[in-house]
Amino acid sequence: MLGAITLLLVYQLVGEVIALAFKLPVPGPVIGMLLLFLTLLARGRISDGLRNTANSLLSHLSLLFVPAGTGVMVHLARVADEWVAIAAALIGSTVLTIAVTALVMRALMARKEQA
Amino acid sequence: MTPKVLDIWVYLSTTPLLGLTITLVVYQCAYWVYQRANFHPLLNPVALSVATLVLLLTLTGTPYQTYFDGAQFVHFLLGPATVALAIPLYAQMGKLKSLLLPLLAALLAGALTAIVSAVGIAWLLGASRVTLISLAPKSVTTPIAMGITEKMGGLPSLTAVLVVSTGIIGAVTAKYVLDFLRVHDHGVRGFAVGIAAHGIGTARAFQVSEEAGAFAGLGMGLNGLATALLFPLLIWLFGLG
Q1: What is the pLDDT of residues A64-114, one digit of tens each?
Q2: Is the interface score ipTM higher than 0.85?
Q3: Does A77 contact B at CB distance below 8 Å?
Q4: Does A80 contact chain B (CB < 8 Å)?
Q5: How many CB atoms lie within 10 A of CB A2?
Q6: Spatial separation of the C-alpha atoms in residues B222 and B220, rounded to whole Å
Q7: Residue A13 burial (C-beta neighbours within 10 Å; 0-12, 13-18, 19+)
């Protein structure tokens, strides 16, 4: 558990350092995720400790959104001003994204089965 | 309040302990309600918690910054949680290999649609530049979306709210959109929901079937990566940078 948490923090730290050093527009933790993914590919297996720690962290993922989400109280005026644009963009774009993703994937899977 | 109670409140309201504890207590109450309501998508625990906390902070006259001094310990865990997304991604490697081309094409199409349509619609309706940037990564899981927005000059806390709203909208509408399009394959359905509605959509997909959930988790992880890479490029193309 302690080892796994340390490992996650070390990958995040390395990710942050790489993002800063090369002035990358990608967030440090994303680079950390990519590096850990590549490490797992190279090693070919996941230790039980790492798997369990990741699972417990990710099973409470939605809790971690709460402090930032509460920040809406600072932006109430902005959301009230632009609520039509924001609501239309969120609903329209989400429905469109689901449709486009599903149709593209289905079309290519059908082609693969024919081939 | 009697003077003694007031003294205790004055002391507690300035320590991080209160902000941290109230976050955990409120979230667990919200999750209990969600569970009791059979995981109804409209009673999303994040939405419930945020509404309750905003109400509590407003009623007690507590500034957000004071609350966040305590809640930041929870917020900090978003970083390691993002790194930990590598583990479910790796666990899906078998599926990823066998369907590589359809998955990658759908990922690219979905990631682009999510960003371009959100920014496009909001821009047509006259939203401000800060709102457009904060809105663009709305389909990606919060830690990644907030990281992207922060880098590009948007408002991370506004992004968090928009991301959570997107997740709820996706979880509610997915069934109707996919039924209308007659997409029946659970893998395809799950992947589409994961791309469009990240963790909240993935949680919803797992309630439908194991296969849908696994593909949704894969979609969420891949879109996080794709958007982090595509977004700076698109901002540059849109001329918002």
Answers
A1: 878 888 888 888 888 888 999 999 999 999 999 999 999 999 999 887 666
A2: yes
A3: no
A4: no
A5: 8
A6: 6
A7: middle
Question: CB distance from B230 to chain A under 8 Å?
Answer: no
Q: Which two tokens stand for residue A88?
A: 């239309």
- Per residue in B79-100, pLDDT (tens digit) is 898 888 888 778 877 777 888 8
Count of helix runs (H) and strand runs (E) in chain A = 7, 0
- CB proximity list for B236: less than 8 A, separation 6 or greater: none
- Nearby residues of B180 by Cβ (< 8 Å), 6 or more positions away: none
C-alpha torsion angle, residues B162, B163, B167, B173 (rounded to 10): 40
Structure tokens at A62: 């939605």
Distances from the Cα of B206 to the Cα of A19, B147, B171, B202, angstroms: 34, 26, 11, 6
The two tokens of residue A10 are 């070390």
What is the CA B188 to chain-centroid distance, rounded?
21
**Token reading at B44:** 């999303």
Residue A7, classed as helix, strand or coil, is helix
Residue in A55, A67, A78 nearest the CB of B23:
A67
B126 reaches A (C-beta below 8 A): yes
* Element spanning B173, H or E: helix B156-180
Q: What is the DSSP letter of B85?
A: T
B94 Cβ contact partners less than 8 Å away, ≥ 6 residues apart: none
Q: Closest to A34 (Cβ–Cβ): which among B166, B169, B225? A: B225
**What is the Cα Rg of chain B in Å?**
20
Dist CA B82 CA B103 (whole Å): 21
Take residue B148 and report the two structure tokens written for it: 């992207």
Nearest to A5 among B50, B54, B80 (CB): B80
B-chain CB neighbours of A69 within 8 Å are: 46, 49-50, 157, 160-161, 164
Residue A112: other Cβ atoms inside 10 A = 12
Cβ contact, residue pair A98, B131, below 8 Å: no
The C-alpha angle with vertex A46 and arms to A40 and A48, in degrees rounded to 5, equals 155
End-to-end Cα, chain A, rounded Å? 47
Residue type, B94: G
